[in-house]
């Protein structure tokens, strides 16, 4: 089967609903599609990701994050509660074996979003084999302008490229699922 058609140049995302990259905005965690997880409705994948950090540590905080008015409110509430010793020490760095827990949580949140929204999954497929970058001031999840951003990790773009391959392989009947359910 031929490779999917799509952009040959890199695909750039921002967390802005309008602007030069707004076509790709639905691929971000902050776009306003409801994501269902364990029988609960989350206003965005960002809400789910941030709430997942605390679901086994502080369920009341996790719930407050889930119902936060906006994705940035959910992020701010979670970040304000990330004190030393609250999250596992390697939450963002990993233990050297596989992905860091933060990336695994975001991967699960985004997988659920794509599984629940065929149109957004189709949009991800339209990126073809292009590299994907989240343009962000956060060098962990995204890419900052060069030369500062030359060492950035772009975890969000990397996980979207992996999910694109996984979802394509699942459609072709050649892949396993990551063990999440739609609701």
From TrEMBL:
It comes from the Eukaryota. Residues 17-168 form the NADAR domain. InterPro entries: NADAR (IPR012816), YbiA-like_sf (IPR037238). Pfam families: NADAR. This is NADAR domain-containing protein. It comes from Calocera viscosa (strain TUFC12733).
